[in-house]
Amino acid sequence: MLFALRSAPSFRKAPVFRLFGLLLTLFSLTHVAQAQVQLRGVVRDKDTKEALPFASVAVPGTTNGTTTNLEGEFTLVVKQLPTTLLFSELNHVKDTLRITSAAESLNILLAEATVVLPEVKVASFPFQLVDRAFRNLQRNYRRNYYGKAFYRQITRIDNQPTELQEVVWNVKSNPARIVGTTLAQGRYAAVQAPINLSNFSVYTRKFGLFDPGQDSTTSLALMSPNVEKTYLLELKGIVGEDSTGGVAEINFETRPEVKYRSQGTIWIDIETYQVVRYRMTQPSFTGSTNNPRQKFEDAKLDIEMTFRSTNGKGEVAPLELMKMTLNTNLTEPGKAPLAINVSSFTYFFEQSAKVQSLPYARASLTDRDLDAIRAKPYDPEFWADNPVVKRTPAEEEVVSAFEKKGAFGSMVKKAPAQPARSLRNGQVVR
What we know:
Distance between the termini: 54 Å
Shape: globular
Largest sheet: 11 strands, antiparallel
Radius of gyration: 27 Å
Number of helices: 8
């Protein structure tokens, strides 16, 4: 029948063939559109049922993956079903699941990983691991990654949200830090308050595990040649099946004689010496405001960095997320102290080693985030239903409150203005 249609000389039958071809094209496009499937779910601890934030969710053998938010929730778009997902979290046993339907939310339970306390490791073992991790970072410092990063910051004064900033950067990073950024999209909203911290992102963009520009002989960083002189280390255990492989969990704290105070935990792969996660608290953080009457007291800064898993196949890996949290009291003569909490979260995505020719700028204390955000036209469609912009219920409540006040403008693009019309001689004219 198809042969007859193609070969028939009649002009009338040609449109029938074109219609059939059009239907085939539409069917193909529909099939492609339907092939994109969105999966959603939550990852929890198998025993406690508590949510596992920042757990990895990935399609094995591909670069397609995501991480859970603070509530353990995730969404991931896959090409088709069935598919297999790999779930992993540093202190839990990895698990895979064959997914055949997206009709219901996935409830993933991960068992806690075995923590081995090696008996034969001498006291110098954690110092050896940290030193080798430092040498590893030093050796691979010029290995760059290019991609995007989503940054969200919420400021609360006496537990009331007063400031919200959301930004997407084009970002250049390496295995130790953010190297430079350029703004892709951003938005900011605030209510009247005694203080704003709209430039808090500079701490995220400037902090790094290692800085080759510092004097290594005086550096107080954990990742430096001075770790034995500056820090006390304690090996808490090795996450893995046995003590010959896995990830070492090491607690660190500056020695009592060192004025600079820092404490936290670092996780290092004992085979590749890759830093997997870093968590640090500065209990005596110093900061100031542009109001000479205001002072920060009892300031504490918490920093967390997580790097993408290489599954033991690489020495270093790009950043996956960064968290910064500042808790302090703002004092001013004649006024009651105000409890300040500033929390930020940065998620890195679409990263690769392919060089991008963008004007990446290094962070500077003179940066003004609001100036950069205001220089970019606000695009409400960019923020609406953006899968990267994942929020916890608490964050969603804050964002919704600001949106209701029109702080960002409408989340839906406004309809184009209609030209003025009038009636003349029974006809509508413009």
